[in-house]
Amino acid sequence: MRLLVLIVGILAIFVGGHSPAEAAERPNVILIVTDDQGYGDLGVTGNPLIRTPNIDAMARRSASLSRFYVSPVCAPTRACLMTGRYNYRTRAIDTYIGRAMMDPEEVTVAEMLRDGGYATGIFGKWHLGDNYPMRPMDQGFEESLVHRGGGIGQPSDPPDGEGKYTDPVLFHNGRESPRKGYCTDVYFNAAIDWMSEMRRAERPFFAYIPTNAPHGPFHDVPVAEYEQYKDLDLSNDRFPQTRGHRLPKKSDQDKRARIFAMISNVDANIGRLFKQLDELGITDNTLVMFMVDNGPNGRRYVAGMRGAKSQVYEGGIHSPFFAHWPAKLKAGQTSDRIAAHIDMLPTLLEVCQVDAPRKVKLDGRSVLPLLEGRQANWPERTLFIQAHRGNVPVRYHNFAALNQRWTLLNASGFGREQLPGRPKFELYDMEADPLQMKDVAGDHREVVNKLKQQYDAWFDDVSSTRADNYAPPRIHVGTPHENPVVLTRQDWRRTSKDSGWQPDSHGYWELYAAESGRYDVTVTYRPRDVAEQLTLVVGDQRLEAKLSAASTSHVFRGVKLPQGNLRLDASLADRRQRKRGPWQVEVKRTNS
Q: I want to staple 315 with a disulfide (CB 3.0 to 4.6 A). Which of 25, 120, 268, 307 is the partner?
């Protein structure tokens, strides 16, 4: 096995245009992204109660960006990270019900680095499509250990792994893979083992470690770390509030203890990671980056900033960013120039000496000069952040446009499908008022108009990337890459505005059948104590079955499907015509 890895590595190096000697000089790269951890959830950012000694130490040894921005929710940030492009170009515009699948034509950083001679691995949360051709293994990652959907404890969980942070059921290179231990420990263990193998094979590597912690649910948290927090006073008045926006008087202290426990567990694993890099002798020439995907999951300490996850105020989009690379970056070097998730791909390409394909239009730029302290003639820029619920973006809805001095925003709310009424523009002078205490839109109409014009041009541009720019990608069935295919509520399209993940929700899936032929379609559902009728509509066929009370699944065998695009809709109804959707559907190409 090791001989095979070595041969593949050598071939990849020469295909990528780098000799073994050149490859040995190129750094390894590790990108750590935590889920729903806010800017203030670190000791180094002023939190007096959380215990993050390893990340704090890493920050002191690192170069940093003090104004680094992400999207207010997770899948959009991940699409930007992977492509160097605004997520509205990628079809990944929301977090669930078919809106978080990234177009497979997008070229990811993993694909570019792989083609440039790097080994590529992901360990944790992908959240850009669970089925072929959108899985991480289809998008450039040679090694993949991930959970499905946007988090453990969601409808995308496999039946034997529902809600299991401890002993999770993950997917290793596309195959269901039960694991022992707490999920974050599992990801880091697998990443460390894989990096050690790549070190022995003398392959430079890119390891992407996006944890699902501290995302909820919070029923299953690391026990040892929870013991450290569960009896502490974690009320809001224990956190600094002399500057900026005050926190509310009430808080859920047990929930906070569980979140802090999950973060401290991430911190312990980062400590183990650096220890392993030391033992492998590769710390100096390994770039380790730490960031978060959006603001905190709940109102808590964010160093006086306003907002939290899903909001476009600073607290919802401002991420810590540390880059540890002793061979190249000076400890304590910091830059206040604005940067964002779209900048990660071009930065990594420069770091790894890999060129982007000519056909790819990048929105980001490399921030390596900022990290190295080479800021001369750094060009002015305006960044755009927007995310909200809905099948298509709505102009001005829940957006922020920011340049080095000003931030223009409309905080209309993430959870609303349509923009309610006219936008309420707010303007903040980030040089004089970095915590966004005073809206000065009325005093600077010329700035509002200029940023609004820039936003309009950006919105028109990203929305015209494709002719059908916001149509969802299609899940492929009947391919040798994935058979059977499991369809979950994560990626269905809902049939009404009230439909989503609720028990009685109903939706459908947009598919592409790679081959005409016969398929077995297995529909699974939550049991009910009444008889129901199951209806399957797929393509131009309508099939029905009577279900007995308390049943949990039914198989339609030998369903003939034509090649091409089709829609699959399964629904259950009782005698009173109360309708609901299935929990999951399996589509398997048969040889009959």
A: 307
Q: Which residue has the tokens 């009947």?
A: 478
- Where do we find the tokens 């607290």? 315
Q: Please state, rounded to an integer, the average pLDDT across all residues of the chain.
A: 94
User: Which position has the token pair 């015209």?
Assistant: 464
DSSP state for residue 513 in the 8-state scheme:
E
Query: Domain residue spans in the chain?
Result: 2-371, 383-463, 475-589
Q: What angle do helix axes 74-83 and 344-352 make, rounded to 10 degrees?
A: 30
Report the amino acid identity of residue 293.
D
Collapsed DSSP state (helix, strand, coil) of residue 253: helix
Cis check: omega of the bond before 484, within 30 degrees of 0 = yes
Q: 201 with 9: CB under 8 angstroms?
A: yes
What does each C-alpha distance from 215 to 183, 188, 254 come to in angstroms?
12, 17, 15
3-state secondary structure of 460: helix
pLDDT value, residue 419: 66
Average pLDDT over residues 132-160: 97
**Phi then psi dihedrals of residue 259, to 5 deg:** -65, -45
Tokens 């915590």 belong to which residue? 435
Which residue(s) pair with 172 in the sheet? 145, 175
User: Can you tell me which residue has the tokens 């009430």?
Assistant: 250
Residue 591 or residue 360, greater confidence: 360
- Average pLDDT on 334-350 reads 98
Please tell me the least confidently modeled range out of 174-188, 220-234, 420-434: 420-434
Question: Residue 538: what are its φ and ψ, rounded to 5°?
Answer: -140, 120
How far does the chain reach from its first CA to its final CA, in angstroms? Answer: 36
Question: In the CATH hierarchy, which top-level class contains the domain 475-589?
Answer: mainly beta
Q: Which of 581, 570, 565, 588 is nearest to 473 (CA)?
A: 565
pLDDT tens profile 225-266: 999 999 999 999 999 999 999 999 999 999 999 999 999 999
Q: Enter the pTM of the model.
A: 0.95
Task: Kindly list the strands in the beta sheet with 68-69, ordered across the sheet, starting from the edge strand earlier in the chain.
Answer: 318-319, 68-69, 339-340
Strands 584-589 and 517-524: antiparallel
Predicted local distance difference test score (pLDDT) of residue 420: 65
pLDDT of residue 416: 73
Which run of H or of E encompasses 455?
helix 445-463
Query: Regarding the domain delimited by 2-371, which CATH topology (the fold level of the hierarchy) does it fall under?
Result: Alkaline Phosphatase, subunit A (3.40.720)
Q: How many CB atoms lie within 10 A of CB 429?
A: 17
- Least confident among 63-72, 98-107, 491-500, 506-515: 491-500
Helical packing angle, 53-61 and 253-280, nearest 10°: 50
Distance CA 350, CA 287 (A): 12
Helix (H) or strand (E) holding 536: strand 532-538
Name the CATH architecture for the domain at 383-463. Answer: 2-Layer Sandwich (3.30)
pLDDT tier for residue 6 given thresholds of 50, 70 and 90: very low
% pLDDT > 70, the chain: 95
**Helix then strand then coil, % of the chain, to nearest 5:** 25, 25, 50
Q: CB–CB of 542/559 below 8 Å?
A: no
